[in-house]
């Protein structure tokens, strides 16, 4: 064995066991929970609007599989909410947890399931980010300024009919989170080349493919028909699985994500959606990496995602502040921003050169 192979680090790959995608498959939620080991009581964590819109179908399916369900409506993704749910659900004693809704509900459910040590099914009702299949969560109120690792969902159920009813802006955000994989993978390569960091080619290629399909096919996908919704949600699920295989968020999250996290610091967490901020970050990081940033911007435009900061209410100064701050949020994650240090002047020049400001 070569010394290089001997030094390769070991890590655990935890993958979703079943992924069910299709039109109106929410009616199969009960059977899926049963097949994944749920036997009696299920806790469903959801949002108010989603519960009203589609809760009935999910609830009927669980009842049809002789499963009792109790629903918990959450309005934010914070540790405070997770702590409250931990207490409540812990007392109610379910043997399975479903996250049914947008990014917030899925994140809160994933974190709560992790803390309670219960299996978790992810049922996204919008294709807005790759957390639907990965072990990573973003919740407010943790001591880290970036996403943290919980457990991988044991299953994913993606009902393309439900997903097609989500506001178009959420799907556009999902495309922002997908194009990000080209700069995330570049950052990972950089860390391998310059810092000797572990690099998983398979995971990197899988994540890269998720970005490439959007970059190559945005003309076809912009129609938002069932074909495009299915393609986008499959790409998001694959990207999440790439993170499972890598054992870290490396293939999915680089400097463009650090920029997004920094924006939340500088401008507050209501400044656009995760994927919208990340999309803007990708345009700028693509330029720094010498990639075709115009293609990134054109893809985002095709998919209806913002390419200018002011489209999500951000000022020039906030963008510049976030670019300067981004790398300091996670000094251990080597990215293009570790190499090309940003000061106010260079940040302004970069953002202007790609017309983000
Ligand atoms: Zn993301």
Characterise the protein shown here.
- The chain is of the alpha/beta class.
- It folds into 2 domains: 18-166, Rossmann fold; 170-353, Dehydroquinate synthase-like, alpha domain, CATH 1.20.1090.
- The protein is 55% helix and 10% strand.
- The chain has 15 helices and 8 strands.
- The chain has a 6-stranded parallel sheet with strand order 1-8-5-4-2-3, with helices on both faces. A two-stranded antiparallel ribbon has the order 6-7.
- Helix 5 (103-116) links the parallel strand 4 and strand 5.
- Helix 7 (168-195) runs parallel beside helix 11.
- The termini are far apart.
- Mean pLDDT is 94; it is low at 1-6.
- The structure holds zinc ion.
- Zinc ion binds next to helix 11.
Secondary structure layout plus pairing:
Elements: H1 3-7, E1 18-22, H2 29-35, E2 41-46, H3 48-64, E3 68-73, H4 79-92, E4 96-101, H5 103-116, E5 120-124, E6 136-137, E7 148-149, E8 155-159, H6 160-164, H7 168-195, H8 201-221, H9 226-246, H10 255-267, H11 274-289, H12 293-302, H13 316-325, H14 336-339, H15 344-353
Parallel strand pairs: 1-8, 2-3, 2-4, 4-5, 5-8
Antiparallel strand pairs: 6-7
The structure holds zinc ion (ZN).
